[in-house]
């Protein structure tokens, strides 16, 4: 089987990434290639760049008829690679090399090299849903409000540069104190429009997102629905405490979160509000958000297919026809 590995050479802090050297062939890369050869998979390695974080490389591989396109990086790399193969016959393989690896965690894919390669080679093909916000895909979450406003600062904080980190902390504190909830109108797929004064509206495809937190435990990646979390009547302090509580396995503020399961919705606001898709700012409101069911074919563990419980719900189904 022919495969293309699309690797982010600077990604993450996972056990897999910690062994990586940012350039050329190296020990970790050799281990990956040798493990795949054990399963008769010959892989070419291509590297992401600032100009192409993975989507272009993935699209080229899919157009060349490569059956297996493997994302080796974090959730950002996975997002880019997925966007390049949606609608094609290529299958996505996942080598989690990022800091959070939320999608891999949601799909029960190990960060261990040997285990991840075995899943890529012998795992079953499942089809997962993908979200779309104003035509931009997301695998984890999209939304408006405080999170979207804070993401640029978060990116600076994650950078390796001292000045960028200080700038990120400063801008993040300023945004946190200056941000105020805005009134938004949401038209749900039942045709009803409701008004909320919300600190944050998150539309989730996966249970985990952000700093590896399970904000949406009911979200299932192959159920044909998106899970909407509306933080109405939340103070900023309560929102921060909510995130801290989740990180500790507690859900003290959970009853305050309004929840809906939808296939599509439309959001407007009095003033333009920042939008994000998987942590990338993509403009401002209005926003049309919808589910693209069974859009992405991905190798997942057999035990996930066999399991009766993934993210507290039913398992991913065996492969259905990919979205075209």
From TrEMBL:
<keyword id="KW-0444">Lipid biosynthesis</keyword>
<dbReference type="InterPro" id="IPR045540">
    <property type="entry name" value="YegS/DAGK_C"/>
</dbReference>
<feature type="compositionally biased region" description="Polar residues">
    <location>
        <begin position="7"/>
        <end position="17"/>
    </location>
</feature>
<dbReference type="GO" id="GO:0005524">
    <property type="term" value="F:ATP binding"/>
</dbReference>
<dbReference type="InterPro" id="IPR016064">
    <property type="entry name" value="NAD/diacylglycerol_kinase_sf"/>
</dbReference>
<feature type="domain" description="DAGKc">
    <location>
        <begin position="1"/>
        <end position="137"/>
    </location>
</feature>
<protein>
    <submittedName>
        <fullName>Diacylglycerol kinase catalytic region</fullName>
    </submittedName>
</protein>
<keyword id="KW-0443">Lipid metabolism</keyword>
<dbReference type="Pfam" id="PF19279">
    <property type="entry name" value="YegS_C"/>
</dbReference>
<dbReference type="GO" id="GO:0008654">
    <property type="term" value="P:phospholipid biosynthetic process"/>
</dbReference>
<dbReference type="InterPro" id="IPR017438">
    <property type="entry name" value="ATP-NAD_kinase_N"/>
</dbReference>
<keyword id="KW-0808">Transferase</keyword>
<dbReference type="InterPro" id="IPR050187">
    <property type="entry name" value="Lipid_Phosphate_FormReg"/>
</dbReference>
<feature type="region of interest" description="Disordered">
    <location>
        <begin position="1"/>
        <end position="20"/>
    </location>
</feature>
<comment type="similarity">
    <text>Belongs to the diacylglycerol/lipid kinase family.</text>
</comment>
<keyword id="KW-0594">Phospholipid biosynthesis</keyword>
<keyword id="KW-0418">Kinase</keyword>
<dbReference type="Pfam" id="PF00781">
    <property type="entry name" value="DAGK_cat"/>
</dbReference>
<keyword id="KW-1208">Phospholipid metabolism</keyword>
<dbReference type="InterPro" id="IPR001206">
    <property type="entry name" value="Diacylglycerol_kinase_cat_dom"/>
</dbReference>
<dbReference type="InterPro" id="IPR005218">
    <property type="entry name" value="Diacylglycerol/lipid_kinase"/>
</dbReference>
<keyword id="KW-0067">ATP-binding</keyword>
<dbReference type="GO" id="GO:0016301">
    <property type="term" value="F:kinase activity"/>
</dbReference>
<keyword id="KW-0547">Nucleotide-binding</keyword>
């Amino acid at each position: 089987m022919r495969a293309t590995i699309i690797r982010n050479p600077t990604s993450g802090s996972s056990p897999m990434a910690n062994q990586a050297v940012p350039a050329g062939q190296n020990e970790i890369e050799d281990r990956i290639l040798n493990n795949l050869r054990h399963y008769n998979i010959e892989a070419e390695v291509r590297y992401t760049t600032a100009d192409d974080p993975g989507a272009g490389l993935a699209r080229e591989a899919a157009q060349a008829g490569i059956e297996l396109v493997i994302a080796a990086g974090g959730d950002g790399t996975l997002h880019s690679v997925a966007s390049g193969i949606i609608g094609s016959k290529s299958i996505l393989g996942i080598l989690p090399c990022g800091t959070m690896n939320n999608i891999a965690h949601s799909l029960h894919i190990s960060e261990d090299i040997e285990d991840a390669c075995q899943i890529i080679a012998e795992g079953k093909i499942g089809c997962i849903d993908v979200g779309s916000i104003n035509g931009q895909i997301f695998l984890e979450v999209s939304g408006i409000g405080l999170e979207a406003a804070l993401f640029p600062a978060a990116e600076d904080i994650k950078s390796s540069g001292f000045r960028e980190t200080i700038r990120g902390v400063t801008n993040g504190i300023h945004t946190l104190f200056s941000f105020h909830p805005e009134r938004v109108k949401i038209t749900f797929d039942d045709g009803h429009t409701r008004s909320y004064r919300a600190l944050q509206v998150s539309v989730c495809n996966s249970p985990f997102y952000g700093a590896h937190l399970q904000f949406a435990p009911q979200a299932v990646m192959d159920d044909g629905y998106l899970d909407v979390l509306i933080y109405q009547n939340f103070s900023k302090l309560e929102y921060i405490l909510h995130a801290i509580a989740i990180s500790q396995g507690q859900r003290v503020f959970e009853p305050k979160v309004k929840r809906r399961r939808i296939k599509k919705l439309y959001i407007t606001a009095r003033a333009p509000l920042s939008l994000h898709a998987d942590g990338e700012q993509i403009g401002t409101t209005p926003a049309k958000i919808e589910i693209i069911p069974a859009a992405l074919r991905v190798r997942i563990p057999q035990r996930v297919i066999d399991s009766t419980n993934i993210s507290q719900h039913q398992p991913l189904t065996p492969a259905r026809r990919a979205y075209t």
